[in-house]
Specification:
The protein is about 50% helix and about 5% strand. It is built from 13 helices and 3 strands.
Length: about 290
């Protein structure tokens, strides 16, 4: 009887469950640093996207070349690439620092410079038209964005305990990005509207707690876009606020503090220099 020929077949092993376990531990570590729920959701989605394309090798069998190929293999915007790079470097940095793996395949990923941002302040006539057609809740949201410079997430988290008297009027304790807080002086109109609300969150959710920042942003975007007849976002209200404050005062540091930016370099990207000012400056060289 002739010898039996043994054929070995390579069987792909799905190791996605390993990815899920490690991603979960990493997210718990991020949460221990007071990362926002929206940040945790974003990072979870980004690592799961990476895991699905490397589910046959497991989280700690991936090399630098595979990470770089994956990042470069998508037609993403510069900011999307930057965000995914941050997620991967955070995940593998945590794993290496925790002693789970000796290697960090994301360490050598090239830095991606931020995309240039041009100021896009929402026009006052659009804001005024949106407010004229709004109910009290939406009016307050639009005023908080355009007259107080708040982000949509900061608007969503306002609570009655955040409104406090100061030496001159009323201030708002703003809960900003990264757990950072700042005090913003309130206009008389906005202070009166906030103080007239019942105790609790200014924009409560029917499911408890407060509205999500995504929902607040959607409400504001719809109202502004309807008034403009084109897409206008809630973030453009911050550009309007930054531009108005800086043009009126010329004080970049104060504008930075009111917006809650870590650097004045970020603030200046929000400020739109009007064409008349540019023409006057240019004329000085003539």
């Amino acid at each position: 009887m002739g010898g039996l020929q043994v054929v070995q077949l390579a069987v792909a092993v799905d190791r996605y469950a390993e990815w899920e376990q490690e991603i979960g531990q990493w997210l718990a570590w991020l949460a221990s640093g007071a990362a926002r729920p929206s940040t945790l959701a974003l990072r979870r989605a980004q690592l799961r996207r990476f895991a699905r394309t490397h589910r046959d090798v497991g989280p700690y069998c991936v090399g630098t070349g595979q990470v770089a190929d994956w990042i470069s293999g998508h037609e993403w915007s510069r900011e999307t690439i930057r965000s995914h790079r941050t997620a991967l470097r955070s995940f593998y940095g945590w794993a290496q620092d925790s002693g789970i793996t000796p290697d960090n395949p994301a360490r050598l990923l090239r830095k991606v410079p931020p995309a240039p941002v041009l100021p896009r302040p929402a026009p006052d006539e659009v804001i005024d038209a949106a407010i004229a057609a709004a109910d009290d809740r939406l009016t307050l949201m639009l005023l908080l964005g355009s007259r107080q410079g708040l982000r949509r997430g900061e608007i969503s988290r306002i609570h009655s305990r955040d409104v406090t008297p100061d030496l001159i009027g009323w201030s708002l304790r703003v809960h900003g990005k990264g757990g950072k807080e700042r005090d913003v002086p309130l206009s008389e109109r906005v202070a009166a509207m906030l103080r007239a609300l019942p105790a609790g969150y200014a924009f409560p959710s029917p499911r408890g707690g407060h509205l999500t920042e995504a929902h607040v942003g959607k409400i504001m975007r719809r109202a502004l876009s309807a008034a403009a007849g084109a897409r206008v976002t809630a973030h453009q209200l911050r550009h309007r606020y930054a531009t108005t404050v800086y043009r009126s005062t010329g004080d970049l540091v104060a504008t930075q503090r009111l917006l809650g930016h870590a650097s004045p370099a970020t603030t200046i990207r929000y400020v739109d220099t009007d064409s008349a000012r540019l023409r006057a400056v240019n004329a000085a060289a003539a």
